[in-house]
Design brief:
five-stranded antiparallel beta sheet, Methylamine Dehydrogenase, Chain H, 2 domains, 7 helices, four-stranded antiparallel beta sheet, about 40% helix
């Protein structure tokens, strides 16, 4: 009898322990399921999460190598393979090497091409860099006479006024002023970050991923499977405890007195 009582006590402790976690899990599943079912009414697909931790979890963190250059009173920034003017995307450009302002034109240099923009960010021309077996551009700057200069594999190149003809010159006497990256104003940096990340993660997608456990990858699916099994255990253990309680309930003796 004592052994059965001990087993029943252990069953109740397990039932209670699993019940606390399972109750929270079931409550979350119910609330998130209701929200997902009414996602359109709640406009969850139009609302976006911009918390840095969530964005980073989804691979939408800050670019690893963002660089900004002040040119002609404007800010040209490189983030990923995108070129931004004052925080606004204006063109694609891979491996940004620098930016300058010359003859009322903004010039941004990538490893294999130059982008020419007017002061409003309108694209004027894309100019491929194909000098000397297409060695990549490493830096862009201005010579003392105002000519545009490029450095490619430690070789110095000087452009004509139309940026069409390039001549290699001696570095010792050229003394170019190379474009150097600077810390952009905070509002511009934040604007670039918002553009780089896009709209972010919608609340609907976040709830769906939490509801299914996919947000945590394979481990999340496994945990949700275990929680589902815990709910099943609660149902079975509850039935067992109820059945044992009925077995132990004493029968009420019938009255033998005459009516």
């Amino acid at each position: 009898m004592a052994h059965k009582k001990k087993r029943g006590s252990a069953m109740r402790r397990l039932h209670r322990g699993f019940g606390i976690g399972a109750a929270a899990f079931v409550l979350f599943m119910v609330l998130s399921g209701l929200a997902i079912n009414h996602a359109r009414d709640l406009e969850l697909d139009q609302r976006h999460v911009e918390l840095p931790l969530i964005l980073k979890w989804y691979g939408l963190g800050e670019p690893e190598n963002m660089r900004s250059y002040e040119a002609g009173g404007r800010w040209l920034s490189f983030a990923g393979s995108q070129l931004y003017l004052d925080g606004r995307p204006v063109s694609t450009l891979a491996n940004g090497a620098g930016a300058i302002f010359n003859e009322n034109i903004l010039i941004a240099a990538g490893s294999s091409e130059l982008i020419l923009l007017d002061r409003d960010g309108v694209l004027i021309e894309r100019m491929p860099w194909d000098q000397v077996e297409k060695n990549p551009v490493e830096a862009i700057g201005l010579l003392p006479d105002g000519s545009v200069a490029l450095k490619s594999r430690n070789q110095l190149w000087r452009a004509d006024t139309q940026l069409l003809d390039w001549q290699m010159i001696e570095q010792a006497t050229a003394n170019p002023q190379w474009a150097t990256s600077k810390q952009a104003p905070e509002e511009i940096r934040l604007a670039v970050m918002r553009q780089y990340r896009g709209a972010g993660v919608s609340l609907e997608r976040l709830l769906l991923d939490f509801h299914s456990g996919r947000i945590f990858g394979t481990a999340g699916l496994l945990v949700y499977d275990l929680l589902a099994l815990a709910v099943g255990f609660l149902a079975i253990s509850g039935l067992v405890l109820w059945a044992r309680g009925r077995q132990r309930k004493p029968l009420t003796p019938r009255s033998t007195e005459p009516p």
